[in-house]
Design goal:
The protein is of the alpha/beta class. The chain contains 5 helices and 7 strands; from the N terminus they run H-E-H-E-H-E-E-H-E-H-E-E. Strands 3-2-1-4-5-7-6 form a 7-stranded mixed sheet, with helices on both faces.
């Protein structure tokens, strides 16, 4: 899988029907919809983004796929409590290609930590600077895997595993104690 395909990557995330999950920086909804299929009608996906156009794209795609378990939320995730979600509510948060864009990376990670229940998991997927691919911006702007792991651990997460996220990304799973 050369480019990131959330539908395939979700197989590594131990998702089960009924889970509550969030997609931080949902963009046009690729992760949100893949997650919505996995958690099923009894589950819930909160697709969060700062761009209204991204939220509209996600809503439209969810409607086309007849997914009623996706809720879009406007929020600047670098602001405390921006997700508007209750503390300890979620089983999983996906942070895909959002850390590279965030000025305050620790604020984004801290919000994920806040809304995850104990033993909840955070998934980090970022462009791999060592892949040599120009997509995703210059290598100097990409976040090396070890830097992402360090940031997550600073926020209180424990590293759990790495998974295949395609030829140009790395995928990491962390657990909230």
């Amino acid at each position: 899988m050369p480019f990131l395909q959330p539908e395939q990557a979700t197989q590594y995330l131990d998702l089960v029907p009924g889970m509550r999950v969030a997609d931080f920086g949902c963009g046009s909804g690729h992760w949100a919809l893949a997650l919505a299929h996995k958690v099923g009608g009894a589950g819930k996906v909160f697709a969060i983004d700062v761009l209204p156009t991204a939220l509209e794209a996600t809503r439209s795609r969810a409607k086309l796929e007849n997914l009623h378990n996706v809720e879009t939320v406007w929020g600047d995730l670098e602001t405390p409590r921006a997700s508007k979600l209750k503390e300890g509510l979620l089983h999983l948060v996906v942070l895909s290609n959002i850390l590279v864009q965030a000025e305050d990376k620790l604020a984004v990670i801290s919000e994920a930590y806040r809304i995850l229940m104990p033993e909840g998991r955070a998934v980090v997927v970022e462009w791999d600077p060592s892949s040599g691919n120009a997509a995703g911006g210059p290598s100097a702007q990409k976040i090396p895997r070890q830097d992402a792991e360090s940031l997550m651990q600073r926020a209180g997460f424990a590293f759990e595993k790495e998974f295949s996220a395609g030829s140009y990304h790395y995928g990491l799973v962390f657990r909230k104690p």
